[in-house]
Amino acid sequence: MKKLFSLTLILSLIFTMTVPSLAAVDATSSATQAPAPTAPAAAPAAPVKSATVTVPSGDTYVVVAGDAMWKIAKKFNMTLDQLKALNPQIKNISMIKVGEKINVKATSSSAISAKKLYHGFGLSANYRIRGEQKDNLNFTTASVVFDQDGKIVDLTWDVMEVTYALFPGWVDPNADQVTKDAFVDSIDDVWQTKREEGYDYDMTHLKSKGVADNLSKKEWFVQLDYFELFFKGKTVSEVEAWFKKYTDANGRPYKMAYPDKLTDADKAITVKFTPEEKAMLVDVTSSATMSLEDPHSHFITALKEAYAAREEIK
Questions:
Q1: May I ask the CATH class of domain 60-103?
Q2: Whole-angstrom Cα distance, residue 255 to residue 278?
Q3: pTM strictly above 0.85
Q4: Residue range 47-51: average pLDDT?
């Protein structure tokens, strides 16, 4: 009996000692055969910086101090024209206010309804008396696309300035045809509009003097480009109202960007302007100081003529 008990005890001890070892083996075996548990997802890598501007999300943007429409357009990877098209409620893009909401995303493709478009061409001619063969005849043109509400969609101004320099000598009416043809050929490449002249018109005097000495340091066509963009989205009556309020006796915008150039008469008027109006004029005259209506050119008149002559584009 003792031998049986001893044998039983020995077997029990052996079993107790071997079970943990067998369990570990089983666990190891299971781990090998069963699919490994899914590892936790790795943390997302830090975004790589790119030269591409990240477009802020949202349908509207709230104007903050220091903002300008062109800055907002750039921030949202848009052109200024695209941003203006989304914000027809803004009548003057140079006078946005802090806290104002700007649409930066169209709600749907149907949000912008198709509108009728009209094209008009205006021409205004005037003779400028200067004496000593400096007189000139100016033809100011305006090619304009208007929408059905009369707002300017596209605008191109130009001027043909006919001076004595364009005439190497009038041909005798009784001259032979060869002489007349030679005269016509001699002026073919000389007659150009100011836009066609481009830098050769030399409004900055950079070409003639070697240094730009006009206020804005901008050429004629560059200044006119600015005005054309500035007036887009406005009606002719709104352009007229702006011209009457914000330009001096010579048809030039009050030079708020150059306070020392303001006359006493200018100061007496501009002192009544709001800070927003003054800021707008600083922005305008930093880019364009040329006259919009004077004996040299009749831009406003040509614009009105274009509106009166407009016809629907079909």
A1: alpha beta
A2: 10
A3: no
A4: 35
